[in-house]
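User: What would this chain look like folded?
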Amino acid sequence: MVNSQTPGVPPAPRSCAGCGGKISDRFLLFSMERYWHNHCLKCSCCQAQLGDIGTSCYSKGGMILCRSDYIRLFGHSGACSACGQSIPANEMVMRAQGSVYHLKCFSCATCRNRLMPGDRFHYINGTIFCEHDRPGAALLNSHLPPLQSSSVLNDQKVC
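Assistant: Here's the prediction, encoded as structure tokens.
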């Protein structure tokens, strides 16, 4: 930030983008082309004061996010791990081992059936398999009906 103040003339008070109040604090934050009180620039998810936890913040879909929440919500790239397309901030997602997916992209690599919350799946070397198609499973002639359960395995569940 460049200080363009004339010597001997106090700077004009700035308005905080968070609360709308005048910023008369000794320190202020400048993020997303706006000024903020230190206590007003907060993560939309965890409410952490962003000026206190680092030197960067993230913005997507009108949300201001700390690094941890951005990665938790959108993955490292903000893109779906299956198709590579951007994930809008307001879209529901599925997660597996730190990867993030569009709902429509969270499907078995073998049969392409979409996995739903509560479905058991196997995540092997970055690839998702349904219960039926997991590598090493006994081959069955057809998929199990959706509500019929197979033996419970100590694996992951869709969140």
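Residues 1-6, 139-159 have pLDDT under 50 and may be disordered. If you want, I can go into more detail on any region.
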